[in-house]
Amino acid sequence: MQLPVEIIDLITSFVEHPLEDDRYTLCPVDKYNPNSVHDLSSLRLVNAIFSYCATPRLFRIVHATYSAHDSEKGCRPLSRLRGISRSYCAPFVRHVEVGLDGPWKSTPGYEAYIQSLQVLLPDCLGRLPNLAVLNFHGPSYSHSHADPLFSWEKISCLTNRAVQTLGDTPLPKLRDLTLALPLTASFRSFLAVPDREQEAIHNVLKQLEHLRVEICDNTGSGGKRYMRTPLSEAKSVLPNREHASHLFNCIELAGSLTSLEIRSTDVLDLDTLSLSNQDHLQILSLCNVSISSDCLISLLGQCTDTISRIAFNRVELKSGTWQDILCRISQLPSLQYFSIVSSGYSKTGESCDLSLGFSLMMDASRDIETCNPLDYNALGDVQRRVNRNRAAGGLAAMGPCEYRRTEMRSLEDALKRKYT
């Protein structure tokens, strides 16, 4: 007896994405999963119908980053991408990840990978007619020190591959872009190109729905909160704060976003970032930035009716209070996820008197680091609002371990007790 194709398709879908509890995830992320790839490969061998259902899923995500493991084993991930792009499986590819998976190593394999990117990447991506997601990863930096040989010239070589790809390759269906590069200065290359390439890059950014930008050089005193590492050569010459405008210029060109993630290592001042016309934004994630309450409230005001998921990690308020920000967030009608970690007040801004004035130990980190107890009452209002919205949408509530402020008095009650 032959199973119906619909049942086989459901089985294949479950093998690809086992059911998981995603309550504590900012958004469901479609990541390359080696276990799923192995299981789908086995499923293809069952019979022709399983092969028919599994093959498009097996080649939907192509992971072509380079790591120390690839260097040791002599693997050539770009060769696999090249082979798929020239095969009948090319139309199945929706998502490609390239760049470095881990820190840079001064070995011939890493050098060869960078050179191969220049030759192969634009041609390979141009052969993928349904490519919707492109993740470009710069190197991560170890806890001890960045490789001193990963100079600005190497960074530029890596960045130029991304620039060349976006400037020379037609990507009409690209909607999701991740750019994880070492420095804010790396983003200068996206705009310092000939007019024809610049127009193509502008068009790609304007058509995006999801944009994630990350600065990944975490060396120096501003890069890590708990474990300081010597400053890299490139970052000493090109400090992130002084070149943040290059990053911001790229973000500002993406005017149709439903999802925006900004992750930095040094604290970046977002008050100089112009985020207008973001009335479709559904997901906002900020990490290691500073911002005034007016700017943050203005951004949230643009997307009041659409935003449903917010994550703040090490966000410093320069002015105003978290009490005011969280009061505004607690009124968002569609909010179903909110996370805040180790966020507080700038030590130099107008609200510096509310700053703790020191960094908590790693095992003592809080949701909000503040001298204003009303901030916690406002956070409780937000957490209760999220759980009410989730219940109305048939979703599981956030647990008490993550939402520890739900039992606190409301901000309104706390204010009454304070002033009566």
Q: Brief overview, please?
A:
The protein has 420 residues and is an alpha/beta fold. The protein has two domains: 1-16 and 27-59; 79-370, Leucine-rich repeat, LRR (right-handed beta-alpha superhelix) (Alpha-Beta Horseshoe).
Could you describe the 3D structure shown?
The longest helix has 19 residues, at 108-126. By secondary structure, the protein is an alpha/beta fold. It has two domains: 1-16 and 27-59; 79-370, Alpha-Beta Horseshoe (Leucine-rich repeat, LRR (right-handed beta-alpha superhelix)), CATH 3.80.10.10. Helix 12 links the parallel strand 8 and strand 9. Strands 1, 2, 3, 4, 5, 6, 7, 8, 9 and 10 form a ten-stranded parallel sheet that branches. Helix 2 runs antiparallel to helix 3 (48-58) and helix 11 (293-302) packs parallel to helix 12 (322-329). The chain has helices at 5-16, 34-43, 48-58, 68-73, 77-85, 108-126, 152-168, 195-207, 233-237, 244-253, 293-302, 322-329, 374-392, 411-419, and strands spanning 61-66, 95-100, 133-137, 176-181, 210-215, 259-269, 283-291, 309-317, 337-341, 344-345.
- Residue stretches low in confidence (pLDDT < 50, at least 5 long) are none
Structural category is: alpha/beta
CATH superfamily of the largest domain: Ribonuclease Inhibitor
User: Rg to the nearest angstrom?
Assistant: 23 Å
- SSE topology string: HHHEHHEHEHEHEHHEEHEHEEHH
The number of strands is 10
- Share of β-strand residues: 15-25%
The CA-CA distance between the termini, in Å, is 76 Å
Total helical segments? 14
And the CATH topology of the largest domain?
Leucine-rich repeat, LRR (right-handed beta-alpha superhelix)
* Helix content, binned percent: 25-40%
Reported CATH architecture of the largest domain: Alpha-Beta Horseshoe
